[in-house]
Design brief:
Layout (H helix, E strand, L loop, with lengths): L5 E9 L3 E4 H5 L6 H8 L3 E4 L6 H15 L9 E5 L10 H9 L5 E5 L5 H14 L6 E8 L17 E10 L5 E9 L7 E2 L11 H5 L6 E2 L1 H23 L8 E4 L4 H11 L10 H4 L6 H11 L8 E8 L3 E8 L1
Parallel strand pairs: 4-5, 4-6, 11-12
Antiparallel strand pairs: 1-7, 2-3, 6-7, 8-13, 9-10, 12-13
Length: 328
């Protein structure tokens, strides 16, 4: 059975209006702009309004992606939302979004792989389309991390922001589209980055609230070491699968968590700045939204042209990692 060439045919992004700058954080916790920038590269992040949930952010990005694809919501056969901050445990954010869009014939589900989620979702949706199960799919990375961030913890609150990035994928010309995926997990490292309470293991209670177990908990140094190692390995593995070399990369789009991790990857892969998309300074770490926000911004800035070889790679809680190669 021949595999259909599947690629990205529409893109869209959305970030909330409110900006939380490093100067703002200086008034909230014991930190300062110089410390944050030197260690992370982050200067500001966008924060969802009180009445905005993940599905609202995803909706705005989705509308733009569907429009640029030249389709309508009625044309969608599948909706996959990568998120760790769903509107609620169930129904899925994807089902809530399906209703908002009026995409009545689309199957819909959420995918949870933290900051690797968008690449995981792309891999899942692409494989379904390649096999002919569906024709058009909407794949979104969206998170409102401000809802699970402890703004009294200076080690984590400087790192995270809210946003959504969306793509529509469908059949493209021969020789174009996704060429390889590399997805992986190291569950033994799950304790390094987690949200302890609110699930079936530790249901919400007065005790869990008092212990701040509904906020992100992270062993920063260990996650950093994992990220540096896995970013390079995942990139090399996916390039091998695609049959291309590091020199062939036209644009490298890494997960936007920390500029030092990105710089390390650039150095190991021998990539110059003009071949790497970096926007962590504007949005901070938006988890599953990170890579699609960077991808869409690169498209908007004209940094991706037809025929370009684009590599996307991420890492996150789980611990997980995911990488992909696409010929635009």
């Amino acid at each position: 059975m021949s595999v259909l060439p599947i690629g990205i045919i529409g893109t869209g992004k959305y970030v909330p209006e409110k900006i939380l700058s490093n100067a703002d954080l200086e008034k909230m916790v014991d930190t300062n702009d110089e410390w944050i920038v030197s260690r992370t590269g982050i200067r500001e992040r966008h924060i969802a309004a009180p009445d905005q949930a993940t599905s609202d952010l995803a909706y705005e990005a989705a509308i733009k992606a569907i429009e640029t694809a030249g389709l309508t919501a009625a044309d969608l056969d599948l909706i996959v939302v990568a998120t760790i901050t769903p509107d609620m445990s169930f129904p899925s954010t994807a089902c809530i979004l399906q209703d908002k869009l009026g995409a009545k014939k689309a199957a819909a589900f959420d995918l949870s792989a933290a900051c690797s989620g968008f690449v995981y979702a792309l891999g899942a949706a692409t494989s379904m389309l390649q096999m002919g199960m569906y024709k058009n799919a909407l794949v979104i990375g969206a998170d409102t991390l401000s809802r699970i961030t402890d703004y009294t913890d200076r080690n984590t609150c400087v790192l995270f922001g809210d946003g959504a990035g969306a793509v529509v994928i469908g059949e493209v010309g021969e020789g174009r589209g996704f060429k390889a995926f590399d997805l992986g997990a190291e569950g033994a490292g799950g304790e390094l980055l987690k949200l302890p309470a609110g699930g079936s293991r530790t249901p919400a209670s007065a005790d869990t609230l008092e212990a701040k177990q509904h906020f992100i908990q992270m062993s920063g140094r260990e996650v950093f070491k994992f990220a540096v190692k896995v970013m390079n390995k995942a990139t090399e593995d996916v390039l091998n699968k695609a049959g291309i070399s590091k020199d062939d990369i036209d644009l490298f789009i890494p997960h936007q968590a920390n500029v030092r991790i990105i710089n390390s990857a650039m150095e190991r892969l021998n990539l110059t700045e003009d071949r790497v998309m970096i926007n962590v300074q504007k949005y901070a770490n938006t988890s599953a939204a990170s890579i699609p926000l960077a991808l869409v911004e690169a498209v908007e800035e004209g940094r991706i042209q037809e025929g370009d070889k684009v590599v996307m790679v991420g890492f996150g809680g789980g611990l997980t990692w995911g990488a992909s190669v696409i010929i635009w």
